[in-house]
Amino acid sequence: MNQETAMSKLRLRNVAKHFIAPRTGQLTTAVTDVNLDIETGEFVCIVGPSGCGKSTVLNLIAGLDTPTSGTIEANGAPIVAPGADRGVMFQDYALMPWMSVHDNIGFGLNYGTPGEGLTREQREKRIRHFVDLVRLNGSEKKYPHQLSGGMRQRVALARLLANGPDILLMDEPLGALDSQTRLILQVELLRIWGETAPREQRKTAIFITHDIEEAVFLGDRVVVMSTHPGRVKAIIPVDLPRPRSEHIRADPRFGQLSDEIWDLIRDEAYRAIDGTEAPAGPKATAVEKVE
Ligand SMILES: Nc1ncnc2c1ncn2[C@@H]1O[C@H](COP(=O)(O)OP(=O)(O)O)[C@@H](O)[C@H]1O
Ligand SMILES: [Mg+2]
After folding, report:
1. What confidence tens digit (pLDDT) does each residue in 129-175 have?
2. Nearest bound ligand to CA 231?
3. Ligand nearest to the CA of 225
4. Which of 109, 89, 91, 90 lies closest to 99 in space, CA to CA?
5. What is the spatial distance between Cα 162 and Cα 157, in angstroms, rounded to a whole number?
6. How far is the CA of 70 from the centre of ligand 1 (A)?
7. What domains sit in the chain, N to C, each tagged with a CATH number?
8. Which regions in the chain score pLDDT beneath 50?
9. What separation in Å is there between the alpha carbon of 228 and the centre of ligand 2?
10. CA-CA distance, 15 to 70, in Å (whole number)?
């Protein structure tokens, strides 16, 4: 293992994924030329217009699918299948409707490899720890249909963490929530992720979102993707201090970064709606001071 490899938690090299439509036989290049190095404890957000291949990239890292060409490595070893080191969370909760909050959170521990070698007491203790962490105390016996969308995603997050993955893969996990719940859960997510802990103790996180401000709020870096074919257009470092609170949105730097990312995707976003060109306008630059 060379030194460069040792530094990257995840490494994608020249990754491409093609799909062949079953009926027409038509070839779609979902993504191409994806090169990305992600360090331990980094929180990386991926934004881009619909269909640019965000979910494809995440599924490849999860090992749910294999690249057509290129390589993906976690800790220097090629990813060939799903593994307990990588946990996935989606927009649609994916909870078992017939199981209580407690049992949903404990599902992987009680029925999967994450619970191997743990006694019943150890598993219970672990479930209680994550119930506390996502603030679901008192709701352990409830069923998913008795919960709000925000609470369901707290359950999904606790279940993901209870399985003890090294790498968190989140595909628009807050996408179905109303905007206020979403803002609250963004703050909660950073707290739960361990924003105040030293970087090497944090989980490595990849978070997909449509929402530029969400990406800037959460991320250490924002990967901006473009479509037809899906590729990485830019990688923007987010130089905002941590821990971050809601108020960081009022920081001029927050607005600058959001504008910069919007400028990168606005043309495609306009075209994606109805094929129209984006109106010409002043490009976002540094925030001007108005006397
Ligand atoms: N299983 C599949 N079969 C065929 N085409 C697919 C499949 N999954 C994704 N695609 C295509 O690949 C492209 C990228 O899709 P996706 O990764 O879902 O984009 P995003 O998550 O950014 O909206 C799209 O054109 C989509 O239609
Ligand atoms: Mg998607």
Report:
1. 999 999 999 999 999 999 999 999 999 999 999 999 999 999 999 99
2. 1
3. 1
4. 109
5. 8
6. 18
7. 3-85+167-274 (3.40.50.300), 95-165 (no CATH)
8. 1-5, 286-289, 291
9. 15
10. 4
